[in-house]
Specification:
Layout: E1 2-5, E2 8-10, E3 13-16, H1 20-31, E4 36-39, H2 46-50, H3 53-70, H4 86-104, H5 106-111, E5 115-117, E6 121-125, E7 128-131, E8 134-136, E9 140-143, E10 147-149, E11 177-181, H6 185-196, E12 200-205, H7 215-227, E13 231-234, E14 237-244, E15 247-254, E16 257-263, E17 265-268, E18 272-274, E19 288-289, E20 292-293, E21 306-308, H8 320-336, E22 349-351, E23 356-361, H9 364-369, E24 374-380, H10 385-389, E25 396-402, E26 407-414, H11 417-429, H12 435-438, H13 449-459, H14 466-475
Parallel strand pairs: 2-8, 3-4, 3-9, 4-5, 9-21, 11-12, 11-17, 12-13
Antiparallel strand pairs: 1-2, 6-7, 7-8, 10-18, 14-15, 15-16, 19-20, 22-23, 23-26, 24-25, 25-26
Helix pairs in contact: 1-8, 3-4, 3-6
The structure holds flavin-adenine dinucleotide.
Flavin-adenine dinucleotide is lined by residues 16-22, 39-43, 46-48, 52-53, 56-57, 120-121, 144-147, 165, 186, 275, 278-279, 310-311, 318-321, 323, 352.
Length: 479
């Protein structure tokens, strides 16, 4: 990297944002020996590490332990009461962040050869970004500034002490009654976690919970949450928030009537908005709208020097692994001139409630709108030996194929769904036929056998009456 003056850097690549997207670009570019600058104004690791995937999964892990202890009677243990020390749960969550943080740290990236600048970045013109008193004139820029919580226009919300993903993991005391606005993945994950840790929880959703997922599988998740005591109100509009003393009251409109719900804390988990504040995109001729920075199939913006990836790119999934995937494409295009094109057809997503809900490819509803003949093949967890050993038999795998067996989508609801979806993502990305899965030899007993059983069922639907299934199980015909 040459420095034409102490304040001007001229790297090949300048990355704005140190979340999963930006860090992946910077690490890969530095790995290939390319002069790289990375600018991060806040915490290295981005939302993913500080206020997204990592702390939310850590909180869920704690909550899962609490629930496992409550359910230990089924395994022969005599457990009386469990006490949750919420301050220690907080310490556990922050311990996990601290354990992961070194991999994303400025020190590590400096060691890899990246010039890390800890400041706010903004465009000065089409070719220049400034960060404090440093100017960066790079051959290519990558904007990876992520997203922030979207706040719905609710009367009184701005005057109430609401929580978002940026503050909820700082709680050291358990909320008595948490009201959650939004029943997407993040809202429901937090609802189950807090309920299992002893809070009362009410979720308010204007439309349908987990609206992008398969309704049949969503119903299984919601049923579990409700049986655990989470109150889920769908189709209700929150029209006002009032904060009195130590309480927060949500006024909702449900079936034409107004009602109020009072809790101790309010968590807003009502979607995301691209984080573009103070970037001065206009100065660089970069087009954007309220959904994010406009990019083409190569993730290039309207300024040919500049790419946008991850949550801040319009029209793409707000997921850590999508940001990583984008990073790989940009590296391929910038360094090797590969003719890349984003392919969103096999980007999986998962909701890490218990049961987990994971999906890849087309949903059944999407597949039915394509002009193809489809077949839907299911296999239940209660027909899997491993699920029985764990006393966790609720859920199923649902594979969507063409009539000839080409796999086009899979949804799994049940234990380990987020892990089990990996194989199906590969199958879809490789255009595989479900026949290939029937020939797989898998360790037994494992939950991955669910997928193989579904695949066999595709070819032998007549054999799946309960008694024939039993005989097949005994004879181990299919391994
Ligand atoms: C509660 C919650 C749970 C989640 N769980 C999951 C999950 O289980 N799995 C999953 O895949 N995804 C999950 N996500 C989504 C995931 O966190 C994001 O998709 C991911 O962090 C996006 O990565 P990114 O690199 O695009 O941006 P970010 O991680 O948001 O990083 C962007 C960085 O850019 C910096 N920045 C912004 N503007 C500037 C500027 N002008 N100058 C300098 N720096 C700037 C920010 O400070 C930030 O550090 C979750 C999100 C939330 C909120």
């Amino acid at each position: 990297m040459s420095a034409s003056s102490p304040q001007t850097l001229t790297p090949d690549i300048c990355v704005i944002g140190g979340g999963p997207g930006g860090l992946s670009v910077a690490a890969a570019a530095a790995g290939f020996g390319v002069p790289t600058v990375l600018i991060e104004r806040d915490q290295m690791g981005g939302d993913c590490l500080m206020s997204g995937s990592v702390p939310s999964k850590a909180l869920l892990a704690a909550a899962r332990r609490a629930e496992a202890i409550r359910g230990a009677g089924a395994f022969g243990f005599d457990i009386q009461n469990i006490g949750v020390n919420f301050a220690k749960v907080h310490d556990h969550v922050h311990g996990v962040i601290a354990a992961v943080a070194p991999a994303d740290s400025a020190e590590r990236f400096t060691g890899l050869g990246v010039r890390v600048i800890r400041d706010h970045a903004k465009f000065k013109d089409r070719d220049t970004v400034t960060a404090g008193d440093i100017e960066i004139r790079a051959r290519r820029f990558v904007v990876a500034t992520g997203s922030a919580p979207a706040l719905p226009p609710i009367l009184g919300l701005d005057r109430a002490p609401y929580l978002t993903n940026e503050s909820v993991f700082e709680l050291k005391e358990r909320p008595e009654h948490l009201i959650v606005i939004g029943a997407g993945s993040a809202g429901l994950e937090m609802a189950q976690a807090f309920r299992r840790l002893g809070s009362s929880v009410t979720v308010l959703e204007a439309a349908t919970p987990l609206a992008h997922d398969d309704p049949e599988c969503v119903a299984i998740v919601l049923d579990r949450l409700e049986r655990e005591g989470v109150v889920i109100r769908s189709g209700v509009k929150v029209i006002g928030i009032a904060h009195v003393g130590g309480t927060v009251t949500a006024t909702i409109e449900a079936a034409g009537a107004e009602q109020t719900i009072t809790g101790s804390h309010l968590l807003v988990a009502a979607g995301r908005k691209p984080r573009l504040d103070g970037l001065d995109l206009d100065a660089a001729g970069i087009r954007y709208d309220r959904t994010g920075i406009i990019v083409n199939g190569k993730l290039k913006t309207s300024n040919r020097r500049v790419y946008a990836i991850g949550d801040c790119a319009a029209g793409h999934s707000a997921l850590a692994h999508a940001a990583n995937y984008h990073a790989g494409l940009v590296i391929g295009n910038v360094l090797f001139r590969y003719p890349v094109r984003v392919n969103n057809s096999a980007i999986p997503w998962a909701t890490f409630t218990e049961p987990e809900l994971a999906h890849t490819g087309l949903t059944e509803a999407q597949a039915r709108t394509c002009r193809i003949k489809i077949r839907v093949t299911r296999w239940p967890y209660n027909d899997n030996e491993r699920a029985h050993t764990e006393h966790d038999t609720r859920g199923h795998i649902k594979v969507i194929t063409t009539s000839k067996g080409k796999i086009v989508g899979t949804t799994i609801v049940g234990a380990q769904a987020g892990e089990l979806i990996a194989m199906w993502t590969l199958a879809i990305a490789q255009g595989m036929n479900i026949r290939a899965v029937t020939g797989l030899v898998l360790p037994s007993p494992t939950l991955s056998e669910l997928g193989k059983r579904a695949a066999i069922d595709f070819f032998t639907p007549r054999l799946t009456s309960p008694w024939v299934r039993r005989i097949i199980g005994w004879m181990r015909i299919f391994g």
